[in-house]
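Bumping with the actual sequence this time:
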Amino acid sequence: MTQKYPHLCSPITLGRVTFRNRMFSAPMGGTDITADCCVGPRTPGFYELRAKGGAAAVTASELVVHPETDASHMFHLDLKTPGCLASWAFLADAVARHGAVPSVELSHSGQYAGTYLVDKDKKKGLAQFGPSDWVRPDGIPVKALTGEQIDDIVRAYGSAAALAKRAGFQMVMVHAGHGWLVNQFLSPAFNRRTDGYGGCFENRLRFAREVLRSVRSAVGPGFPIELRMSGAELFDGGYGLAEGCAIAHALEEYVDLIHVSAGSYQFGFFRTHLPMFAPHGDNVRLAAEIKKHVGKPVAAIGALNDPAQMEEIIASGQADVVYMARALLADPELPNKVTAGREDEIVRCLRCFTCMAERPATGTRRCAVNPLIGREIGGTEVTPAAVKKRVVVAGGGVGGMKAALTAAQRGHTVTLLEKTGELGGILKSEQALPFKREMYQLGLTLARQLELAGVEVRLNTPATPELLEQLAPQALILAVGSTPIVPPLPGIDGENVMVVNNYYLEKDKVKDTVVVLGGGLAGCECAVHLGMEGKAVHLVEMRDILAADCNIRHRPILMQKVEEFACVHLEHAGTRVTPEGLVCTARDGREVLIPGETVICAVGQRPDRDTVSALRACAPWVREIGDCARVSNITNAVYQGYHAALDI
């Protein structure tokens, strides 16, 4: 077999361990942590999914090495807590049994202890320790570590590494980036010490050197040690790429792999975790520059999910390894698909931040396009149905396609009915917004998977009682979606008005000045896109908040983009549309004209309950999923479609 991505799929040896390819699974926090900070029962399955999917290394995150000064509710590893070592051994085995190398990230949050706590009041009550005394921008005071505490933390890194090796891990990663403790000592912005650990460059390196020496002493020669660092901190006062290169050069003698990330937690979250508005691989340049200054292998990371791009990174010598996190949540099978030349079946990460928003909200994990994430304990294989049935899915949006695919994988005979000439549902409209291209691609990928699974797809075929009587399904899944809400305003049916769902069909009609009516997620993203296109955009919302339906991780960066590209009018209720724009009533009762040659209506969706009512008695087993049940999001549509098919 000719390998399409030979560099990406070639093995690499670090220390005395050989890795099967160059695609590594980046550190991601587990799905559950016990009250005493052991690995919970769901977490081994979470990491195992990526090992089964073909990743060469799978890194568990984050193991707090010194709970005494890092009071976060995160993973610990000790011999005092009954079952703690065993829980890590089960995790390492879950990864290793599939041919992947289990690794663990050794960490200390320093002045950001408690970052992932759901109880934010408790976070404020924690003692925050860092290199120096100061008060964080959010008002939380930080205490400088004493020399005795530093010595104890250095020893703790070695002890944790030794226990990880004992548990069966074959590599350890020392987290020295993203504003965590080792990075805080390296950073001129955070390290204001006047002793041997602060001041000049060599002194700021001291803590990192001592930590790495402690780890090496604990694990012995040949055992791979990885250094995760920020190639540049990317905020005023932090170190830049030139100093990042110097840090990597100074520390490379102690490690086997230099993993180059970017940014710092409090000042650059969206430079570390690239949003949909940033180019894929935007941080690879940092790894490429550092690689010029070191002799050890270098790993790159940064919203990578395209096999061709990753192949070029390795082939061109920009890095030796590529790391993925969110991409492997979306599709854990990505490495296997790359190796087998099935890249057209890869389910791409949407960079919607659903995964990262779930952690602070509920303390769990979820992925918009992968219903297994966080729920692996219930089984990760689609098991064949005991009795094969005739299944009809009405609606070819993302929920309907996921339901049809899953039902076919179980062995049912599946027919999908779609009233339009193209699958994808509301995702079709995303093709006009470049930063949401992956959402449109999701529809294309699911359509390809339906083809491979043998699902009969009937386009331009509305589901009707008469047709369903002919098909006689034994199970019927209703995924007929929703319809746009168009408020009954005078002039709303004018030639200068379009519904946001139809923008991709009518974008050439949009003039240079635009009013977007509706400041929910869809309206905000449309306004940002139009602003990026060079339009003068006014965004009108009757409430006092924008994008209330947006998750807590995506919303801050979206609000930055809205501020940059649109003029916002909150608490303005549209009353009529004229050729000059949208007339609104402001909060104080004034009538205001918001000027715009084009008005785009983005006020929301309404469940298609009429179609549901007409079809709900057309089979002995019926399930309603997605927007037709309750207008929601991709995450819920995919989850409901998957589980509806499992219930047949």
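The tokens above came from a reply further down the thread. The chain has a mean pLDDT of 95.
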